[in-house]
Design goal:
6 helices; alpha+beta; about 50% strand
């Protein structure tokens, strides 16, 4: 019986201490808790204050994020950690009235973040070539992100769409509308997990020029001219593009990337000094590092091209061009000379 009484008093003592601690904490919050600087791994928080009016409020003047020296060597994203964060946000959601971060600094990027009760979180980021505005909503097992605006290099690349990060499956899914060089609109779907990224997309409408689009990808100088300089057409239609890669081997994309383009009224010069081959339409397929070009109703120096095709292999140290012409036409002086 004595042990039971002591145990009872111990429990009551713990409860009383807990209540007293809560009362003291609430009293401190009501008056406000502030700090000059807090240093965490990779993050510093300056000029912060936590208050209670009547719900929790958090105001921070400046957050500085230290980026990896070499992002390529950083670890793949850990979505399980995001799950813990989201569940914590959901738990505190009914207790928080507002969050304000006036200045966020990460390398050359500057931003700000704000949240108010019963509203979305708003993040704005600016950099030398980037303008980004997103809205965020945290749920117990998912983070929903609306990309309101992403503008890169004076509209050479713009993006808007939605991202949903599912922490149960450790997976992120995105649907974007991407506009390249203010010419080509692409509707894309992207899936990312802890191992890698896969994507598929298609062009919305044909375009009449591709050189400004191709230049965005900063391809090898040996590759870019074969795509943009040696081809002329009245219309280019991106029918499909897809690919995938693991974070551990991003160059895997060269082998998984597959793209199909339909080219109308084609003029293609596959060798210097020769006239272009002509075709009413041409199928251009890039797959496993090889560009396959198959013209329809082709002519070359005024003669029927027959079953003509061109392969350009970019896999080796040197680009290999293979041209096959299966026709009954005879070689003319222009070809021979």
């Amino acid at each position: 019986a004595r042990i039971l009484r002591l145990t009872g008093w111990a429990v009551l003592g713990v409860l009383a201490l807990t209540v007293l601690t809560a009362i003291l904490l609430l009293a401190a919050l009501a008056r406000g808790i502030s700090w000059d600087s807090i240093e965490l791994p990779g993050v510093s928080l300056e000029g912060g204050e936590i208050g209670l009016a009547p719900l929790l409020t958090l105001d921070i003047e400046r957050v500085t994020i230290t980026l990896e020296d070499d992002p390529a060597e950083s670890e793949p994203p850990d979505l399980s950690l995001l799950g813990d964060i989201l569940r914590g946000i959901d738990l505190l959601g009914g207790l928080v009235s507002s969050i304000s971060i006036q200045d966020i600094s990460a390398g050359e990027l500057q931003g700000r973040f704000s949240y108010r009760e019963n509203d979305l979180g708003h993040l704005y980021v600016q950099g030398p070539q980037i303008d980004l505005a997103i809205d965020m909503e945290a749920k117990p097992d998912a983070l929903l992100i609306e990309v309101v605006e992403f503008n890169y290099d004076n509209s050479t690349l713009t993006v808007n769409g939605q991202i949903e990060i599912d922490v149960h499956q450790s997976q992120a899914r995105a649907e974007f509308q991407v506009v390249l060089a203010e010419l080509l609109t692409v509707n894309s779907n992207i899936v990312a997990d802890t191992r890698g990224i896969s994507f598929q997309a298609a062009g919305q409408d044909p375009v009449t020029e591709i050189a400004p689009i191709v230049s965005l990808f900063e391809l090898d100088p040996d590759i870019e001219p074969w795509i943009s300089d040696y081809t002329r057409a009245s219309a280019y239609t991106l029918e499909t593009i897809s690919g995938s890669f693991d974070y551990s081997d991003p160059f895997e994309l060269l082998q998984t990337l597959k793209a199909k383009i339909r080219v109308t009224d084609t003029q293609y010069t596959f060798a210097h000094g020769l006239e272009p081959a002509l075709a009413t339409e041409t199928s251009v397929v890039f797959e496993k590092g090889v560009l396959h070009i198959v013209p329809e109703q082709a002519t070359f120096y005024g003669q029927g091209g027959g079953d003509t095709w061109v392969d350009i292999d970019f896999n080796g140290e040197h680009v290999i061009l293979t041209v096959a012409v299966n026709t009954r036409a005879q070689a003319s002086g222009g070809i021979l000379t």
